[in-house]
Structure prediction request, 133 residues.
Amino acid sequence: MTAWLLLVAAILSEVTATLSLRGALDVPALYVLVVAGYVLAFTLLGQVLRRGMSLGVAYGIWGAAGVVLAAAGSALLFGEVLTVLKVTGFVLVAAGVSVVEIGSQRAQQAADGAAASPVAATGAVHAGGEEAR
Prediction:
């Protein structure tokens, strides 16, 4: 599985566990699902990191998606109210995660470009910024 699919599975496991935690208040047997969901979520997150996704990106996406999905699930399953202010917050969180992801991609591209450059590989640059010959 790719890191992205594993991350989606981790997010869904965490949201399932979180929603089950709310449900377990009325049905204590759901605590089994809570524990299983969190164990699976963290196991999957470990696999995401093992496949090379940075912790900042993975955790940022997990956190943001988890908040939005848990709130939406709570509204659907438990009748919790989604106000305009809450939805605005969700949009801002999603925008923030997008900015982090774009920044991460650009940093990786810059690092890849620097690693491919002979100047970067040798470190041979004069103080004036010109390549050594």
